Amino acid sequence: MSLPFIIIAVVTLFAAAAAMILRNLVHCALSLVVALAGLAALYLTLGAQFVGFAQILVYVGAVAILIVFAVLLTRSDATPNQTILAPGWAIGIVISAVVFATLGWAALNSTGLPKGTPPAPVATVKNIGDVLMTQYVLPLEVIGLLLTAALIGAVIIAMKEESPNSGSSRRQSAPSEKLERTDPALRDCYDAKEGGRV
Amino acid sequence: MTPLQGCLLVSALLFAIGLAGAVTRRNAILALIGIELMLNAANLNFIAFWRYGAHPEALSGMMVVIFSIAIAAAEAAVGLALIIAIYRHYKTTNLDQINSMKG
Predict the structure, then answer these.
(1) What residues contact residue A35 under an 8 Å CB cut-off, 6+ apart?
(2) For residue B42, is it within any domain?
(3) Within a domain: residue B15?
């Protein structure tokens, strides 16, 4: 294990832990960006350049932005003042510790793992494109179909529901107008406008 | 400890962190972030076995990771759309207050 690998792994793990521990959701999303970028750097140290840059493009570029938008659209960007943990969180911690112990034990004690470091394999974009267009062309088409379906589905799910009597938009806008009227500064503004019109 | 075992340990720890976050946090968005971390831990395993295993020239581990990244992007889009739709209905993203399917 080389020194760069250890440094990047420590940074990635700390960022991932921070993304799960911090109270403010915006801070969590930003720590997630650091963790995903660290993972991309790990892929680069392992010789998988294409996957590393795809990780940066897709995760850091798209998924993290999507999460930040979701945080802002659900108005959960303020630091919550009640507890952030679900009831029964101790059981969850114990379960994940058991999972880590099992996986770690298996990784350290398995005898079938390949030992030693083979020479770095060649994985140019040309090779990847060749394999993608010949051997893996059916999975590629299926992924394309899945992405199209997921995009259309996401838009339909997140679309605003039309209420049957179509008066919902007017009802929603009414309270805000009343609020503006009761706000003293805005009321002055309204009065001036109406006076000017008269 | 061989380099492969180092990768596997990092990935196991990442998976455990993601699992703990997905199970223990109350916010639905945090659960989704935990799931993303778990998916990434699996991707790291694929890349590690591709790098240190036999026949890396077949590029199979790398292909699986590329498809997995695409599926994770689709999953994140649909999951966040669901969270936004649920928020519009319940006015909350706390998972323990979302307890009925019919509303």
Answers:
(1) A12, A15, A16, A19, B37, B40
(2) yes
(3) yes
Count of residues making up chain B: 103
For residue A85, list its beta bridge partners.
Answer: B25
Residue B92, CB-side half-sphere exposure with 13 Å CA sphere: 11
Per the CB < 8 A criterion, the answer to whether A52 and B66 are in contact is no
- Domain range for B64 is 3-90
Quote the CA–CA distance of B72 and B70 in Å, as a whole number.
Answer: 5
Model ipTM over 0.95: no
Residue with tokens 């379960």: A95
Q: Which of A14, A20, A140 to mutate to test the interface with B (most CBs of B within 10 A)?
A: A20
Which CATH number goes with the domain that contains B72? 1.10.287.3510
Q: For chain A, list the domains and their CATH numbers.
A: 1-80 (1.20.120.1200)
Q: What residues of chain B lie within 8 A of the CB of A38, using their CB?
A: none
**A117 CB within 8 Å of a chain B CB:** yes
Total number of domains constituting chain B: 1
**Dist. CA A53–CA A184, nearest whole Å:** 54
What does pTM read for this prediction? 0.83
A153 touches chain B (CB under 8 A): yes
Facing residue for B29 by CB, picked from A25, A86, A104: A25
Span A135-189, pLDDT tens digits: 999 999 999 999 999 999 999 988 877 666 554 444 444 444 445 455 555 555 5
